[in-house]
Amino acid sequence: MVVIGSGSILTRLEAAGRVEEYRLLTFPTAVGAGRRLFPDGRLLTLLSSEQVGPASLTRYGTASAPAPASRASAAASAPESAS
User: Fold this and answer.
1) Distance between CA atoms of 79 and 71, rounded to whole angstroms?
2) CA 14, CA 8: separation in Å to the nearest integer?
3) How many domains would you assign to the chain?
4) Residue 11, CB-side half-sphere exposure with 13 Å CA sphere
5) Residue 80: inside a domain, yes or no?
6) What are the average pLDDT values for consecutive 10-residue runs of the chain, which has 83 residues?
C-alpha cells in the first residue's frame, strides 16, 4: 500500500504494526518548526538513499520488518524443490 501525504492514516497503520518500510522524498528546506513525522525514540534502519533531481529519496525499514540481509539469507537457505 502506498500512502501519500496523510499523517493521520500513517499514524494508525504504524500503531497497528502494518508499516514495514517508509519511502521519503524530501527537498532540502529549513523551516524551524512543524509537526514531527516520527515520535521521539522511533528507530528506523536506513535501507537506501539516492539523489533524485534536487530531492533525496530515502528508504527506511521499521523494527517490525525483516532486515534485507535476513530476507536474502532466508531465501538462500530455503530447500530447493525437486523437479
Assistant:
1) 14
2) 10
3) 1
4) 8
5) no
6) 78 85 85 77 90 93 64 45 43
Q: Which three cell numbers stand for residue 78?
A: 530455503
- Contact between 37 and 79 under an 8 Å Cβ cutoff? The reply is no
Q: Is residue 33 part of a domain?
A: no
pTM for this prediction? 0.63
Query: Is 35 inside any structural domain?
Result: no
The cell for 45 is 534502519
Within a domain: 55 = yes
Q: Under the phi-then-psi rule, with left for phi > 0, alpha for psi from -120 to 50, and beta for the rest, what region is 17?
A: left
Q: What's the Cα-to-Cα distance from 53 to each of 26, 27, 28, 30, rounded to whole Å?
A: 11, 9, 11, 18
